[in-house]
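FYI - complex with flavin-adenine dinucleotide, inputs then prediction.
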Amino acid sequence: MERKETIVVGAGPAGMAAAVQLCEMGFRDVLIIEKESGPGGVLRQCIHPGFGLTRFGKNLTGPEYKALDEERLYGSGAELCFNTTVMDIRQGEKEGIVLSAHTPEGIKEYMADAVILASGCRETGRGALEIPGTRPAGIFTAGTAQAMMNLKNTKVGNRIVIVGSGDIGLIMARRFTLEGSEVLCVVEKSEICGGLDRNKKECLEDFGIPLLTSSTVSCIKGKKRVSAVVVRDKDGNEQEYLCDTVILSAGLIPEDSMAERDIEGLFYCGNVLYVHDLADDVSVSGEEAAIDAAGYLIAKMKGKNFDSKYSSSNVGSARDERRAFLAERNALKLKESSSGRKYIICTMCPNGCRIDADNFTGGRCSKGEAYARNEKLDPKRILTSTVKVKGTGDVIGVRTDRPIPKTLMMEGMKLIRDIEADQSVKVNDVIAEDFLVKGVKLTASDSYRSEKIR
Ligand SMILES: Cc1cc2nc3c(=O)[nH]c(=O)nc-3n(C[C@H](O)[C@H](O)[C@H](O)COP(=O)(O)OP(=O)(O)OC[C@H]3O[C@@H](n4cnc5c(N)ncnc54)[C@H](O)[C@@H]3O)c2cc1C
């Protein structure tokens, strides 16, 4: 059994932040275990912008956000162990915490004084959603579809219905549309959109994709492949949509079934604690959990007790608090949406201020007014997509280095289809100059590493 002072499980943004924080505080015996072949977690497949606004003051894509943390992680002194899945976390018989992991060499056991669980979430599948109908091909969760498109360059379908209006579904609605698929509608059982306002606006409204609230998919049809879905509204009216693909974006489940509850010295952070809206908040929770794990180790040495909001014994109350917060936020959203007031949602930062569409008031800072005026006269967006990597079947994320007129997005996608990047491409490398607009650069949002060496 290998013994470590602290083990971090998962190298997404939460795990990376936790490991770096521990090392920066002077802890030297830190091991991070990750089941994939490299760090980054969900960030690797999130090629869209919207990351880093509060932590770095920049509108980054997921891979760009990952690159900044990855550099710190590699320089931190933490020991990294990839391709290793933790299957079991339990209290040691006499002391410490015992972890069993599946490694490329076989099953291995570790013991640690403190463990930080940063294993993220998994998506709710069709079984849990209990959608009646046949079992044809063509039904994917939104995250799976995102990984297929953004990492494996695989188109999932042509005519798509999305079930659930969570952020992943909204972001994929835009991605499918930009890639030439038709998104017929997003079906949401609640009265309001589940995702962030900025995603509703930039992913659905920009492309005229209907959001059917207070509605459910009551049946999926098709023999080999999906052929249609039936959508039922709250009054029982049904409408059939002919489609070949159904995307599920209806909730995330914490990836913590491998851990016993109430283990002393076990801390939760990031999305395994509860689903955070933003990666920035996830990173902060990783840092805070690391500070508390350090506090615990010091208290233990002195024979004292230590309690933290990130302790495994407090996970239930942290999740209850989050549920209460979301219920309050949704009630507010519902009230505002039924007020009849016309507003423009500012997307300059995650506050998402509602700016009055007529007199441009309502922003918490001056950026709101400027944004709303531009949005009315000349709306602009950052365009993100993928380009092929020469001589491989792989793709790499790209972005415009600044927003371009919204009306040019589809033209930009046509140009992107013919562009290829070299295998030596690194994050921020310029892929094309004067892209659509003079002075606008198309840059790589990730560094290419072949899957074999990743
Ligand atoms: C589609 C989508 C769009 C998003 N858009 C935005 C956005 O615009 N802006 C923003 O700020 N945030 C966005 N987010 C949110 C952000 O990406 C997540 O909140 C964040 O990645 C969660 O970080 P995490 O470290 O908790 O989990 P993850 O990123 O899921 O990382 C968990 C890691 O743990 C590993 N792991 C899991 N189980 C084990 C195990 N048993 N053993 C070893 N390793 C394990 C996983 O492989 C993974 O690498 C988006 C998320 C998604 C899915």
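The chain has three domains: 2-120+255-322, 124-252, 381-444. The longest strand covers residues 106-117.
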